[in-house]
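job 3f2a | input accepted
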Amino acid sequence: MPDGLKGRQIILAGGSGGLGSATARLLAREPVRLIVSYRSNRDRAISLSPLAAITQADLASAEDRKRLLDEAPELYGLVVFSGDPARVSNPAELEEAMRRSHEVNYLGPVLLAREAAGRMKNSGTPGAIVLVATMQALALFPGSTAYAAQKAALVQAARILAKECRGPSNIRVNVVSPGVMQAGMAEASIRSGKYDSYISGGAISRFGRAEDIARAVRLLLEPDSYITGQVLAVDGGMTL
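job 3f2a | predicted structure (240 res):
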C-alpha cells in the first residue's frame, strides 16, 4: 500500500528490550502511533518515550492486558516480545522455572494476541499480529526444557489463531523465531563463548543483530501482506 504503516496504531508488548527497541526505531521512521509496554524495567522503557507512549503491563494479568489494549482503540498491529529465558542450574529449580516460563513465554502473550484479535474482529479492522518465539522452539537444544517447550507451544497457538482469523476478517498472525542475537537474552551467552563454535565451524557467518528482527517484524506487519500462519526463523541458518 502506498502509505505503508503510516499513522497506524501498533503495540509493542514487552518491547523495551534490545529487539523491541530496534523495532520501535524502525517503525518510528514511517511514522506509526506506537505504544510500548514493559513489565518491570521502567528506566529502559522510558528511553523510548520520544518514539512511543510508554505503559506498564504484566501480560499474565487480565486487568493489565485490558488496560494495554484500551490504550489502542484503533489497533492495527500487535507485536509481543515478552520472554523469560527460564534458565536453571539446579534440577530442583526446574519446576518453578517451568511455571514462571508458562506465564511469561506462553500464557500472557497468547491471551493478549487472542484478545487483540477479538477486538480487531469486532471493529472490522484488518490487522497483523506478530509473536516472538526462539530458535529453541524449532530445534533441540539441551537444557532448554523450561524455555523452549513454552515457546514451541506459543508457535502452535499462533498458527491456530491464524487459522481462526483467516478469510474475511483479514487478521494475519505470524511468528518470528530469533537465533543467537547480539541483543536481549542471548547477549550473556555470546559473551560466555557458548555459541562460538557455530561461527568457527561455519554454521553461521555472524551473530544476529536486533535490526535483523526489526526488519522481519516490519515485513509481517505490512498491510498488503499475503503471509499468515507462518514461522520465520531469523537465525542465519543455525537451526539447519
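job 3f2a | Residues 9-227 form a domain with the Rossmann fold fold (CATH 3.40.50.720).
job 3f2a | closed
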